[in-house]
Amino acid sequence: MSALDLPLREQAAQIASGELDSGELLDACLARIEERNPDLNAVIATFPDRSREMLEKAPDGPLRGVPVLIKDEWPLPWRAETVGAASVPGVTLEPGESGPYRALRDAGAVIAGIANMHELGSSSTGNTSLYGAAHNPWDLERCPGGSSSGPAAAVSGGLVSGAVGADGLGSIRYPAAYCGLTGLKPTFGRSAMDGHHIVNTETIVSGPLCRDAADARLLASALFGEDLPAGQPSGLRIGVMRDPFWTDSAPGVREACETALESLRAEIDGEVVEVELPDLDLILPAALLVAQAEEAAHLVPEVLNGLSPELGLVNRGVLKLRALLPLSLTARAFRVRAKVRRDLAALFDGIDLLAWPAVPAVAPSLAEPMIELPSGVESADAGNARQGVLANLTGVPGVSVPVGLDDGMPAALQLLGAWGSDALLLDAAEALERATDREFVDLRPSDRKTAPLRSGGQSP
User: Fold this and answer.
1) Is the pTM of this model over 0.85?
2) Which residues have CB under 8 Å from 45's CB, separation 6+?
3) 3-282+326-447 sits in which CATH class?
C-alpha cells in the first residue's frame, strides 16, 4: 500500500518519526494527481515548486510534511482564487495570505494543489464549474456534491488524505455524503476565514473533508488554531425530527441512517428522543435569503449589466434576481434567523445531538441531478438544502458520517450539535465508527465490483 493511502494522522506520525520521507510523499501525491485527475477533474492547479518550497520551510507542526488540497475559494500568496467561475461579480480577486493558507502553513502542511468547486459555490451538486465538473470516484457519471466538489472527489479518489472545503449552505456536508467521507461544518467563526471574498459572511466556514473523524479532528484543529480534544461520549440524548428529514428521504438512505443511529445509541448507552422545532417551513427560505444578502452590496446595476457571458446561465439569472428581492423580505429573514437560533438553543437544553440523513438520496447523475423521494421527483439542490441549511442559518456545527450504501453509492448520517460542540460531534462520529467496525469509513470506491477509475493504473 502506498503511504498516500494512509490516514492523514498516520502520514504525519510517520514523517515525525522519520519512518516516512516527506519529499517522497509529496512526489507520490503529485504523481497520483497526474495519473488519476484526468478522470476525476478534482484538481484544477498544481505548483510543484511552491509546494516543495512549503515543504522546505515547514515548521514542526502537527501536519508537518503532509500534502493537502485547498478549495478554489481562498487566495494563496502566489495565486488568486477563482471560485470556479470566469469572474466573481463586483469583486477583484488577488493573491494573498488567506487564513486557511496560514493555518495550513503554520501546522506544517504542504498545499499540493487547488481543488475544483461548483461555479460561485452556488449548488450542492458540483456539476458546473469554469473548469468542468468534478466527478464522483464511486461513479464518474454521478455528482461529487457541491460546492466543495473537488476536495471531496480528491480525498475519496485517493489523491490526498485531507482537504479544506467551505460550507455556506451545506457545501462540505453534501460532498462528504456523496463521496463517502467525513466532513465537518464548524461552529461559525471558529475556523480560519481571513481573505474570503465575502468579507461579511455570516454563514460560510472553512472545514475539513477527510476519510474519518480522527483525521477531520486533526485538520480542523489546524484550521481552528487550537486542539479539539478527543473524548468518550456516554449517555448522550439524540434528538430526531422525523418529518420531513427522515420521512422524505429515499428508503435505502433512511434505512442505512436508522441502522447507524441505533448502533450509535447502543455504543454510547444513549437515548433517542423525538423532538420538534417550530417554524420548520421558514428555515430554508430564511437561510437562502440571508446567504443571498451577503453579496448584495456588490450587485449594483453596473455589475449586473456587465456579467461575464462565461458565467453559467443559472448563475447569471440568480444574480439578477437578487437585485429584485425587496429589503423588507431580507429583514424578515434575519428576524426568522434570530427566532430559530433561540428555538434551537432551547432545544439543545434538553438534548446533546440532532440526527437525520445528511442528504435525502445518494449522488444523482451529473447530466440530470434529480432525485426521487417519497414526496416525488425533485432537484437534488432542493432536497439537500432542506437537510443542510439549519446549521448555516444558526451557526451551529454539523458533521456528515458515512453509514452505508444505497444503489452502490454512499449514504450518510448528519449529526448537529449546540454552538461550540465541534469536539463532541467528532467524538460521536468516532463512536459511530467503532459501533460499525469502521465498515463504511474504510470502504473505498475501488471496493465496488466495478472500479470507477478508467485509468486502472497502480498507485504510485
Assistant:
1) yes
2) 79, 113, 114
3) alpha beta
